[in-house]
Amino acid sequence: MPTGFGWEFKTQYQKCQWEAAEYKGRQYTDTLYEKVTESIARLTFNRPERRNAFNDSQFSDFHAGLHQANDDPAIKVVIIRGAGPAFGSGHDLSSPGQEESPPINPKLNPTVIDYYGLERRRCGKHEDIMNFPKITIAQVQGACVGAHEILAGACDFIIAAENAMLGVRGFGRMSLWASNYHGQWPAGSSKFHAGKLLPEISGKEAEAVGLVNRAVPFEKLDEETLKWAEGFSRLPLETLVVIKEWFNGMMDITGFGAAQRLHYSQHLQIQYTRFRSDEVNFYKMRRDKGLKGFIAGREQASTPKG
Asked: How far is the C-alpha of 256 from the C-alpha of 185, rounded, in Å?
């Protein structure tokens, strides 16, 4: 019987596809699990040759690791980091058919409901991270862009290297979570003024505007993150769980939970794939222009210059 707090990887609408991830006896490969101390676990994205770009295997290992940490009654804090030079480069777009939640084959004649269900499963995984009952700390170095920036924003705390780079060119704004996720709430505060949301921002700059909790020189990143984790691990677990539930509930009342779920419909633009002549979506553009061609065109069209 699980010894955690009943967390089951489910969103308001549908249980996540990773709920049944089995961790007992699991051979972790693309995300590694380790118990650092009696009360601290650490998950390490382990695809450094791909800058830890997400694919199905890495997400499966990651969520299995979260299940294992949840079911261990001694664990109070989970540190999430990346192997190699980067925290993570977002979704793996360079390996068609192996991406995290690849598109539905048009030959199956899927409906809008099928596509929307896929988006709920894909995006709900990030909401599951936000609602994880124990403390999560993102330890960010190097690039932290796209889906990895979303994941870091879903964590309770972010400790970053001063020279880390958050954001991604091609979206025309600094943070994917700046508009509708509680992890980037300070982006809506008076610290940000019109025109200040840049496509990319360093860890040191992110600390100055409140987007990360602490930025330190890279060589002190492990030490600083562990210090925060050890501090939280001295608190009663029941207190941490109740505080997280209270905070997330308050943010949901303000509309952040609804915004998270409503943005699934935005993703239909890139997932409703039929490859018609007048169709505009990522997969069609990748087929016609290649990945580099698609990224170059997107950056040119949507990134402010100067």
From this structure: 10
Structure token digits, residue 202 = 């360093």
Running DSSP on this structure, what letter comes out for residue 136?
A: E
Q: How many CA atoms lie within 13 A of 74 on its CB side?
A: 7
Taking the C-alpha atoms of residue 154 and residue 132, their distance in angstroms, rounded to an integer, is: 9
The 3-state DSSP class for residue 22 equals coil
Pick the closest to residue 74 from 3, 1, 148 (CA basis): 3
Q: Which residues, in sequence order, are CB contacts of 4 under 8 Å at separation 6+?
A: 70, 71, 72, 73, 133
pTM metric for this prediction: 0.80
Task: Give dist(CA 167, CA 131) in Å, integer.
Answer: 23
For 276-303, write each residue's pLDDT tens digit.
777 777 777 778 888 788 777 766 665 5
pLDDT at 169: 54
Owner of token pair 């029941």: 238
Phi-psi region of 281 (alpha: psi -120 to 50; beta: other; left: phi over 0): beta
| pLDDT digits 0-9 by tens, 6-19 | 444 333 333 344 44
Tokens standing for 182? 């509680």
Structural domains of the chain, ranges and CATH numbers in brackets: 31-221+232-265 (3.90.226.10)
For residue 134, give Cα distances in angstroms to 38, 61, 81, 137, 184.
14, 18, 16, 10, 19
Give the whole-angstrom CA distance, residue 215 versus residue 219.
Answer: 11
Strands (E), the chain: 31-37, 40-45, 77-82, 135-140, 143-144, 157-161, 165-167, 200-202, 214-216
User: What are the structure tokens assigned to 294, written together?
Assistant: 């698609």
Other CB atoms within 10 Å distance of the CB of residue 6: 7
**Other Cβ atoms closer than 10 A to 289:** 13
